[in-house]
Amino acid sequence: MPIIVFGSLNMDLVAQVPVLPQPGETLLGTGFVTVPGGKGANQAVAAARLGLTTAMVGRIGDDSFGRALRDALHGSGVATDLLQVDEAPSGVALISVDDAGENQIVVVPGANGNVTASDANRLPLGTEPSVLLMQFEIPLAAVQAAAKQAADHCVIVDPAPARMDLPAEFYGLVDILTPNQTEASQLAGVQVKSIPTAMEAAQVLRQRGVSTVIVKLGSQGAVVASESEVFHVPAFEVKAVDTVAAGDAFNGGLAVALLEEKSLRSAVVWASAVAALSVMTAGAQPSMPMREQVEEFLLHHSVEDL
After folding, report:
1. Does the global pTM surpass 0.70?
2. Which of 49, 64, 251, 260 is deepest in the core (most CB within 10 A)?
């Protein structure tokens, strides 16, 4: 299996409100939608839509949300036969978004919180090169066990949400770590406010044993630090409609590009194009582009300093 995603699946319950509520306040919303999400599921959809065989390993509840989450993955071409139905309800994210675009989010892990280290035994790792994509929306013990299982493959970890309890040995199990600006600051103990400070944070994390660190800086692009080079890839200039899951789009694109044996620099540019396309469409999974869209985009857009 070329791409395996081990992680979370959530149903996002999104309420549009004029302003965010204060404690104890009841107000009328102006809209409501349910959207399949979860960082793991988002990354799986991103990779599958780019044309590579992708499998999702995780847990859902025996409920309508669980069935909808499975159907959404299947509809995007993700293999779902390794999803386990759990006794807990499916994970949900309760999201309020105001007219200014600010939000409040409460995530209830549900079945995601019951993923254990033994779930790593279900990863379909074969002898062919694979990429294992993981995040921190499932228990750390499960992520660490999976990283050990995939020692002969490429392990990409999106450290979101950031954790301060990572054991020292964890970093050495990761081939590529992809924090955003906030996560890099928390993990490295360096305030990431610029490209130079992002490079500094990336080097701190590399010194802990990670082979390659990619700090995602949104509109400032991405900073990459590997054993052989440190460089910056500017972001594509696009009009953003919704930045939700842009990081997940980036990680899915990165996995595909690396499996297709693009150089690290070219893979980051390609992943950046996937992320740029995703912010031009509203929603998480609905915003993940198809491969032909990425290829067309790259024909007409370029980034500086390549």
Report:
1. yes
2. 251
pLDDT at 283: 80
Residues 6+ apart with CB under 8 A from 287: 242, 244, 245, 249, 277, 278, 279, 280, 281
- Residue 209 — left, alpha, or beta (φ > 0 → left; ψ -120 to 50 → alpha)? left
Which residue is catalytic, options 119, 158, 175, 248? 248
DSSP readout, the chain? Answer: --EEEES--EEEEEEE-SSPPPTT-----SEEEEEEE-HHHHHHHHHHHTTS-EEEEEEEESSHHHHHHHHHHHHTT-B-TTEEEESSPPEEEEEEE-TTS-EEEEEE-GGGGG--GGGGGG----SS--EEEEESSS-HHHHHHHHHHTTTSEEEEE--S--S---HHHHTT-SEE--BHHHHHHHHT----SHHHHHHHHHHHHHTT-SEEEEE-GGG-EEEE-SS-EEEEPPP----S--TTHHHHHHHHHHHHHHTT--HHHHHHHHHHHHHHHTTSSSSGGGPPPHHHHHHHHHH---S--
| 99 catalytic residue (yes or no) | no
168-175 long-range contacts (CB < 8 A, ≥24 apart) are 168/208, 168/209, 169/209, 170/140, 170/144, 171/205, 171/208, 171/209, 171/210, 172/208, 172/209, 172/210, 173/144, 173/147, 173/148, 174/147, 174/209, 174/210, 174/211, 175/210, 175/211, 175/212
Contact 74, 49 (CB under 8 A): no
Residue 306 has pLDDT above 70, yes or no: no
- Given a cut of 50, whether residue 71 has pLDDT beyond it is yes
Provide the token pair at 231.
């460089």
CA distance linking residue 199 with residue 207, whole number of Å: 12
